Amino acid sequence: MKYTIATIASHSSLQILKGAKDEGFTTLAIATNDKVSFYKRFKFIDEIISIDSYSRFYDLENQLKKKKVIIVPHGSFVAYLGKEGDKKISLSYFGNKKILAIEGDRMKQYRWLKDANLNLPKIFTHVEEVDRVVIVKLHGAMGGSGYFIAKNQTDLKLKLKKYNWIKNDYIIQEYIIGVPVYLQYFYSPLSKNLELMGIDRRYESNVDGIGRIPSNMQQEINTSPSYTVIGNFPIVLRESLLPKVYEMGEKVVAVSKRLVPPDGLYGPFCLETIVTADQQFYCIEISCRIVAGTNLYILGSPYTDLTFKEPMSTGRRIALEIKRAIREDKLHLITD
């Protein structure tokens, strides 16, 4: 196949490149010098280009264009290339860059999800309005780093002073008590179908560690919980909840087409939700590209098994969509 699928060697790059190889593509990883030896272990990666730092990524673009590269982005693109990094990429790019401007701003996210008629935690625009337990989040893809909980308004003021954040850099969100459930989807602009790729939950440090300590000892330790993601584990939802899962995904895609016409959101995305005791979903966030929780399902999930005849990771599903677009001369519909 004359096209090469490439990505930055991080996050979910292994399943992206393995999926591309399974679908017959040439594969390429862009890795920093200290990571090259690790990625050489994997025979499905045909070529590794080494760079001193990811800030040098743009120096490679002319070289990559000659290889007919299609870049597949993931969460580390923001971390390594900055908030404007996606916009600067001039290579063929899988996904809609315009939708990422909404993803990166939590208030724009909130309005999008509200327009989709999803249940949402309350957002507080002023500290003085806070009358319940809240969680404070930085804008952008931070993997939970820096998030904190405040038990009341006084606690919130003290912690905001400690962190010294600029007001427009964060949001104050009602803390919903329930089970965190991360819903992994794929929307195909070619078939117009929404697919459920998998469901996961995150291991977060140090909040999951604190929860294993008896409550009286927690008070003695006096440690504030943090929410840095260190891994994921699978969840299978009770079947009666699945119609709601599909309904939420379809509503989000429909509204996205009005926000960023005509294409809207397509490819992989994730709704991050909390499921309460009365089985209600509260959507706390959306990620508009492949998420790291999909790494659980390189051989497919219980949900992809219901749809596909072969093992289907989200990485392979991306390659399958690109392959179909090339075959039908519709690559322009799925690349930016």
List the helices and strands and how they pair.
Blueprint: E1 4-8, H1 13-22, E2 26-32, H2 36-39, E3 47-51, H3 61-66, E4 69-71, H4 76-81, H5 85-88, E5 92-93, H6 97-103, H7 106-115, E6 123-124, E7 134-138, E8 148-150, H8 153-163, E9 170-174, E10 179-188, E11 193-206, H9 207-210, H10 215-221, E12 227-234, H11 242-259, E13 267-275, E14 281-287, H12 314-327
Parallel strand pairs: 1-2, 1-4, 2-3, 4-5
Antiparallel strand pairs: 6-9, 7-8, 7-9, 10-11, 10-13, 11-12, 13-14
Helix pairs in contact: 1-12
Brief account:
The protein is α/β, with parallel strands linked by helices and 336 residues long. It has helices at residues 13-22, 36-39, 61-66, 76-81, 85-88, 97-103, 106-115, 153-163, 207-210, 215-221, 242-259, 314-327, and strands at 4-8, 26-32, 47-51, 69-71, 92-93, 123-124, 134-138, 148-150, 170-174, 179-188, 193-206, 227-234, 267-275, 281-287.
